[in-house]
Structures are given as structure tokens and as C-alpha cells.
Design goal:
Helix content of chain A: 40-55%
Number of domains of chain B: 3
Number of strands of chain B: 18
Radius of gyration of chain B: 22 Å
Largest sheet of chain B: 7 strands, mixed
Oligomer: heterodimer
Structural class of chain A: mainly alpha
Helix content of chain B: 40-55%
Number of strands of chain A: 0
Distance between the termini of chain A: 9 Å
Number of helices of chain B: 18
Strand content of chain B: 15-25%
Structural class of chain B: alpha/beta
Largest sheet of chain A: none
């Protein structure tokens, strides 16, 4: 998957996790927590969804990498580059 | 021949969950949804653990632990259960305090607590905001040496009335005390006392029924009356369980049983490091409870101005050790109106007090029955202050004690709020001791109550899912021995 495809995948997951929020206007370089009402359970859900959908494992110590869309895509790019778009 | 409650069960699952409290139920459902095969084993004949209820002749249904939970339950139920379950959560808007220091009613959210503290307790708005912000900003990795008592002293020095207002509901909800770490208070407080108190419309029986249906839809193999005797360990890895005389293999086991019983009884000390065992043995259990359940005659109504929850006390000061004493001065009443169970014509009252197991454990059967009768009588007398004709309206009353909790949940010492703070670290460290072994349940105060237990079930399910995926890769042919 290419970085834009990974971004799309993340937004798709965010949309399923926070159905009451509009994720289309989320800024790529601003922490997600500052833009959406997300708590630590929401980030756990992102991790679980990534594993379920793409079999990507994210160790707990790396959860901090999921702060912004940009940092998430950057972190996931090497892990997901060989995957086909779901 | 006795009924075989494991009839048709397979010989091997990806994961076995022991215990169907809210943590066990939610872990099982979450794991099954990720595609793992899950066997859920409950020793009792009902699912739910402490999230339970009982029925009495005349059509009375009593909830044991449905007293109010934070708003976060809506999101967790929607995500880890169903929209229907989430949609049944409604707010309780009349929360009352009545004690020698103050009497007031609140909607139990940040705005209203701020209003009360400023107007009634004469604290500056800035100070209140600073306290809320500090409590909200606390997280698990912060300093653990500050106690809740010291936190209050910092913001509201000498104000025992304010401590009472801010602490009593939390003590009631999870057994914590002023001596517990401030961070556990802060985390629970900012969850619990910022956006109101909520309940489940239709009662605990409806909630557990809906959860059971969803578990089956998710593909969980659900079994009641299955008492796990041993968790089997082979060369440092979990291998399965012994249950009702059968051995069933699993690559992972989640125990939703009491943390100490899991380590010391179901697995056995020989499988752990000495230092881990020392830590596990040193974990303090939280206290237990006494409850008195009172049902009014069909059609007898209570005035809703009584409130939904009433924190009542005749003690001049707030002392957490006094709350545990058998010389009861503080009671929390949950008032249930027919709207709690739409279609019902019943009003019920459940009075709860925190209690110590040791005060009840040693009584002879006769003394025990006498003490329970006393408890009912003294509670009716105390309740008379709010409902003068309670005895005329009453149809049924009975009491439960720490011994009752011990009997039904098999928790050591009848603990009804899990463990103290240190239990969380021990619970989390289990898989480092035995690969594939996990614990989820009320530990460390933070992970307690309905919401805490449910979310902890999800956290652990995530760990197990991750471990199953990894161990699958490493040993594709791993089977139980």
C-alpha cells in the first residue's frame, strides 16, 4: 500500500471508531487528540482494527507513533508497503 | 447421570475465558469478533459475575450492582457490544447527599459540582477548575506516592465537607479510600464525576441477556456451571484448563476470576518466580459490601424527589474506616422507579454499605442469621427518615453480606471491588510469567466498576489477539498436551 492508501485506511478506521465525528477535515500534522474526542481506548481500537484488517502488529511502546495522521502513515509505511489495498 | 454442561464442547480453542463478569464477557466477545475461537466458562448458573440480579416471589427483581456508571459506558457498549445495548443507557439526574455537614442534590457533572463548590462551599472558581484539571490530567505513569487525602489537602486544606462530597461517591463505587494513590482517585473521578451518572434501562437481567445473544452471534462457545479446577501449564506456556473433569486445550487463557485465586489456586505457586509470588501475595483485596434489598408492594409508588442515588450518613465526619465498620452510620440508597424497568409497577430500594469480610466470616449460622435480621431492621429504621411509611409499603426485604458475595463469586474474602492499586501491575505481569496466560477483572481501582472492568476486558483481548497472532507464526503446530 502506498502512503496515500494507508492514510485512507486510517481515516476509514477513524470513521468507524468515531461515527459522530467528521474525519474528512482532520489535519495531517495536528495531534488527533486535539481534533477529535479520542481517549486511550480509541487508540487501542485503532491498533486492534489495524491488526484485524491488515495483520499489522503495533507494540504498546509504539502507540505514541499514532499521534498525528502524518506520524501514523510514516510509522506504518514500511510495515504495510507489501500489502494490497483491502 | 448429572447433566454434562460441556456436551459438544471442542477439545481445543484459541482462547478460554474463565469467568463471565463484565471483563470476561467483553474479552470473549472482542476476541471472537477478531476471528479467534473462544470458550467462555462460568461456574455459576448465570452469566454476569457481579453484574447480576435475583428474583423473589411476587415478581420482584433486584439488581446487585446496577447503581450508576459513567457516560463512557455508552461508547464502550456501542463499540464492543451492540447499538441496542448502548441505546438503553439513560442518565440518572437526581443524585443526593444528606449528612450532618450538608444536604444537596446534583446532576453529578463538572458544571454542577463547580456550581456547588463555588456557591455552597464558597471555594473560588479558579481553585475548583485547578482541582478538576489536575484530576483530569493524571495518568497511570504519574507519581504514585501522593495519596487522595494529600491531593484534597493541597486544593481544599482543612475542608472535610468538600472531601466528603468528592470522595464519598468514589468510595462507594469502588471501595477506595483517602489512603489510596491520588492517581487512581483522579482517573476514576474524572471519568465518573464529569458527565453524570447513567444506568441501564431494563435492568441487569436485560443487559446480560442481550450480551449473551451477542456472544452467540460472535461465535463464542458459552458454558455455565463449568467450574475450572486448574489452569494447565506446560514448559512455561499455558496449555488449557481442567474443567468439570475434562481437559480442554487452549493457546491462551484469560482468567476473569479473582486475581489471587487465579495465581495461588488455579495455577499454583510452583509455576511462578519468587519475586512475582511475593508481589501477588502482597496484593490487598478491596473490601466487600452488605446490601439490603427492599421491594414495595405492587403499585406502591415512591416520590421521585427521593432521588436516584442518595449518599446518606449520620456520621459527623467522613472517615473511610468508619464506612467499613459494622456499626453502620453511612448508607447509600439506590431508588428504582418503574421507569427503570419499563412496563413494571414496582419500586425498589437497595441500600449498600461497605463491609469487612472478617466481621462476618466467623459468625455461627445462628449469629449470622440474627445479624442479617438486624441489618434489615436497622436499615428500615434508617430509611424511615426518608420514607416514613416504608414498613407499610414494604412487600419483601432481605440482606446480603460479604459471605453472600463469597458464596456466589468465589472471590477471596468476598471482595466486591477487586483489588487495591498494586493488583493492576500483577495482573498485567502474568503473561511475562506464563506465556499465553492473562487476567482481566476488577484490579487496581482504575479497572473496576462496570466501565473499568469492561474496558480492561478489551485491553486484555487486544493483548491476547496480538499474542495469538505472534505465537501462531512461531509455532504453527502448537497444541495442548
Amino acid at each position: 500500500m502506498s502512503p496515500p492508501e494507508i492514510k485512507e485506511a486510517i481515516l476509514d478506521i477513524l470513521e468507524s471508531i468515531a461515527p459522530d465525528e467528521d474525519v474528512t477535515n482532520v489535519k495531517d500534522d495536528v495531534p488527533l487528540r486535539e481534533q477529535l474526542e479520542l481517549d486511550s481506548m480509541d487508540f487501542l481500537d485503532i491498533v486492534m482494527e489495524l491488526r484485524k484488517r491488515y495483520r499489522v502488529q503495533i507494540p504498546e511502546d509504539d502507540y505514541v507513533q499514532l499521534a498525528t495522521i502524518n506520524s501514523t502513515v510514516e510509522y506504518l509505511a514500511p510495515l504495510m508497503k507489501d500489502l494490497q489495498k483491502a | 447421570m448429572p447433566k454434562d454442561f460441556l456436551q459438544g464442547a471442542r477439545d481445543h480453542y484459541d482462547c478460554i475465558v474463565i469467568g463471565s463478569g463484565l471483563a470476561g464477557l467483553t474479552a470473549a466477545n472482542t476476541l471472537a469478533r477478531t476471528g479467534q475461537s473462544v470458550l467462555l466458562l462460568e461456574q455459576h448458573y448465570k452469566l454476569g459475575g457481579m453484574a447480576t440480579w435475583f428474583k423473589r416471589p411476587g415478581g420482584h427483581i433486584f439488581d446487585i450492582s446496577l447503581h450508576g456508571f459513567p457516560v463512557g459506558m455508552i461508547k464502550s457498549c456501542r463499540r464492543y457490544w451492540t447499538q441496542e445495548i448502548a441505546d438503553s443507557i439513560v442518565q440518572l439526574k437526581n443524585i443526593r447527599f444528606d449528612n450532618p455537614m450538608f444536604s444537596l442534590t446534583t446532576t453529578f457533572n463538572r458544571e454542577d459540582f463547580t456550581r456547588l463548590l463555588v456557591e455552597k462551599f464558597q471555594v473560588s472558581a479558579e481553585r475548583v477548575q485547578a482541582f478538576f484539571d489536575t484530576a483530569r490530567g493524571m495518568n497511570f505513569y504519574d507519581d504514585q506516592s501522593t495519596t487522595a487525602g494529600e491531593l484534597f489537602e493541597r486544593f481544599f486544606p482543612g475542608r472535610e465537607d468538600i472531601i466528603r462530597l468528592l470522595m464519598e461517591p468514589i468510595t462507594y463505587a469502588n471501595g477506595s479510600t483517602l489512603e489510596d494513590p491520588a492517581i487512581s482517585y483522579g482517573i476514576v473521578f474524572s471519568n465518573f464525576m464529569s458527565k453524570g451518572v447513567f444506568t441501564f434501562e431494563g435492568g441487569t437481567d436485560r443487559l446480560i441477556h442481550l450480551m449473551h445473544e451477542e456472544l452467540l452471534r460472535s461465535g463464542v462457545d458459552v458454558r455455565i456451571k463449568c467450574d475450572v479446577q486448574r489452569i494447565l501449564v506446560n514448559r512455561g506456556r499455558v496449555a488449557g484448563v481442567q474443567v468439570n473433569g475434562r481437559t480442554i486445550g487452549a493457546r491462551a487463557v484469560i482468567s476473569n476470576a479473582n486475581l489471587k485465586s487465579t495465581v495461588l489456586k488455579m495455577i499454583g505457586p510452583e509455576h511462578f518466580d519468587r519475586s512475582f509470588l511475593d508481589e501477588a501475595e502482597a496484593v490487598r483485596l478491596n473490601n466487600s459490601s452488605c446490601q439490603v434489598y427492599m421491594a414495595l408492594r405492587p403499585g406502591e409508588m415512591l416520590d421521585e424527589s427521593l432521588g436516584d442515588l442518595l449518599f446518606s450518613s449520620t456520621a459527623p465526619l467522613f472517615r473511610t474506616d468508619l464506612l467499613l465498620s459494622r456499626d453502620v452510620t453511612s448508607r447509600t440508597y439506590s431508588f428504582y422507579y418503574p421507569r427503570t424497568r419499563p412496563g413494571s409497577d414496582r419500586c425498589l430500594v437497595v441500600s449498600s454499605t461497605n463491609a469487612r469480610y472478617e466481621d462476618w466470616a466467623g459468625l455461627s449460622d445462628e449469629a449470622y442469621e440474627d445479624s442479617k435480621r438486624d441489618l434489615v431492621e436497622s436499615t428500615l429504621e434508617a430509611l424511615g427518615r426518608y420514607i416514613p411509611d416504608i414498613r407499610q409499603k414494604l412487600d419483601h426485604a432481605e440482606a446480603s453480606t460479604p459471605r453472600t458475595f463469597r458464596h456466589y463469586t468465589r472471590h477471596l474474602q468476598g471482595a466486591s471491588f477487586g483489588t487495591k492499586f498494586e493488583g493492576l501491575a500483577v495482573s498485567r505481569a502474568l503473561p511475562e510469567q506464563i506465556a499465553g496466560l492473562y487476567h482481566a477483572g476488577s484490579v487496581g481501582i482504575i479497572m473496576s466498576g462496570w466501565l473499568g472492568a469492561m474496558n480492561y476486558g478489551v485491553i486484555v483481548a487486544n493483548d491476547v489477539d496480538s499474542w495469538l497472532m505472534k505465537s501462531n507464526r512461531q509455532t504453527p503446530l502448537a497444541t495442548a498436551t
